[in-house]
Amino acid sequence: MKNTKTHYGWLSIFFHWTAALTIIGLFGLGYYMVELGYYDSGYKTLPALHKGIGITLLGLMLLRLFWRLTQLQPAHLATHKAIERKAGKLIHNALYLLIFIIMFSGYLISTADGRGIEVFDLFELPGFGSIFNNQEDLAGVIHKWLAYLMISLTAMHAFAALKHHFIDKDDTLKRMLGKRQEKQTHNP
């Protein structure tokens, strides 16, 4: 379940893929629902679903961040160049930062009128109302454009993993799929 010097543990793998699929799904849902008109069938239900999933993702990301900070991180593969290591670290850190900023801006959009966010009829995350002028619109612009940036970085991350798998033929992608292979050496 825990990470080792050479592999990711099952919990890290679970957090990674669950967050990735949820983020892609939220982006697609958000992209679709902004075009809905008042009389469209999903006008009220889809934003509530987007918010509920977003709050659930926040909880998952907080657990993931705690797990990441308390776990050993597998060493880079010896085949990874210094520039790849730096780029990978930069993109990972940027993705974490973007995820939290996007979720916070979504919260600011949803609670600008003082109402809380109902999460799947299980509980309500309280709202504090408008903290600054034009909060809903400004947070909306931030939410939208940072979501586009995050999806772009996610695509770069995915292409890099595919490059490692198909061109470099190393174990980068296999490690995040849970495959245990010891044939390559690792560098700290």
Large-scale geometry: elongated
Oligomeric form:
single chain
Average the pLDDT over all residues and give the rounded result: 94
Quick one: biggest sheet? 2 strands, antiparallel
| N-to-C CA distance | 21 Å
Strand order of the largest sheet: 1-4
CATH architecture annotation: Up-down Bundle
How would you describe this protein?
The chain is built from five helices and four strands. Helix 1 (10-33) crosses helix 4 (135-166), helix 2 packs across helix 3 and helix 3 packs antiparallel against helix 4. It has helices spanning 10-33, 45-70, 82-111, 135-166, 172-176; strands at residues 76-77, 117-119, 123-125, 186-187. Strand 2 and strand 3 form a beta hairpin. The protein has a single domain, classed as Fumarate Reductase Cytochrome B subunit (Up-down Bundle). 62% of the residues lie in helices and 5% in strands. The chain is elongated. The strands form two sheets. The protein has a two-stranded antiparallel ribbon with strand order 1-4. Strands 2-3 form a two-stranded antiparallel ribbon. With 188 residues, it is mainly alpha-helical.
